[in-house]
Design brief:
CATH class of the domain at 1-118: Mainly Alpha
Shape: globular
Low-confidence stretches: 1-10, 12-22, 27-37
CATH topology of the domain at 1-118: Serine Threonine Protein Phosphatase 5, Tetratricopeptide repeat
Strand order of the largest sheet: 3-2-7
CATH architecture of the domain at 1-118: Alpha Horseshoe
Radius of gyration: 27 Å
Amino acid sequence: MKTSAVQRTTALLIMAFALSIFSQQEATVAFSQATLDTDSTTEINRLKTLLNVNEFDQVIEEATLLIEVIEQEEGYYAEDLYNPLVILGDAEFNQGNYPSALKNWSRARQVSRQAYGLHSLEQTEILYKEADALYAQKLFADANSKHEQAFSMYLRAYGTDAVEILPGLDRLAGWYLNTFNVYAARGLYNDMLTIAKANLDETDPQIIGGLKNLAKTYRMERFRPDFLPSVSTAFKALPYGATINSGTYFPDINNYAFGEQALKEVLKLQLQSPGTTIEEFTESKLDLADWYLLFEKYQRANVVYADVWTTLHGTSAEQLLMDELGEPKQLYFPLPNDPVPDVFTPDTIVMSGEIELSYSVIPEGKTRRVKVLHSDPGDVIDIAVINALRKARFRPAFKDGVAIKTDGLTYSHTFNFTQDALDN
């Protein structure tokens, strides 16, 4: 598939003409002959460009034809099939055709193993794609297996202490964190920080990111949803995430001071780093202030919020200040799950409802005067949403650096329900 790039357009025009007058098989042969001199790298890059601008139908059509040409010329497991198979899967995923995407990605992994070895790291990005498609279909245990398989390849390739495993650690820890397996995530972030601090500059972004996410595990431990999504119980994470020292690691439970310490360390490292932007430093200060607010250390919270106001007010970052402190921002809102069954029968009819509430946010970030403005149908989920809003915590609005009460706020919640929810 070596050619000059200038012939690609001619090849595609020939293909378009062939499709208009020949059968699919005859057109593929014509396309094959026209692309004998086409630069395959240029064609792959063009398909990626089309993918980035959401031209999914065109990508699927052209990638499918390209795959057929390569199969005819080089065989079913040719290395040149890898990129078009991945791109075809990406386009199908974006169209919601998850089974077909999984089929093409799986074949791309087969090609990768054939070309680079059974445990090649080239497979990891496809495994993550497969995990996303399985997650979209609510096949959570299967998605978890893909994430853990990807990380096992990092361990096999580099061992347990090498800096090269940090991307794999970060991906698996992030998966656990997003599925509310906070102790598993905490174990991995601790492992990640141990390796990073031993091998990288102390202000490296991987260390700062690891500290931020470690703090999130403590915050999520304390402020968990009242009704965890089904993904949180669909699989059992590796023992507290301790994939490296599973026999010796025990998680810190209810030791929230470690979360606060991690956020303070982030600020210290960012102060030392000349590359820290005002947006990054502001975000980290707000993370610490929000932490204090959630744990009801209001005086400390207000000191940090006031420092943000003083730093940004009257500067070119005034808009950032208004975005962050100009109006209340949600920090914790434990909404209930929709009143629908985990398993649907063919006779299940899912309906949509809506509830609208009004409320106020006081300077301490708590809500007051929660009232129902509208509910359709009434009494299906009203009490649960009202209770969730009463438990919610917000970063309050500020004026002249001082937290203020905000009245007249509204919240609209759309939910799905079945007849059983109405009957009960």
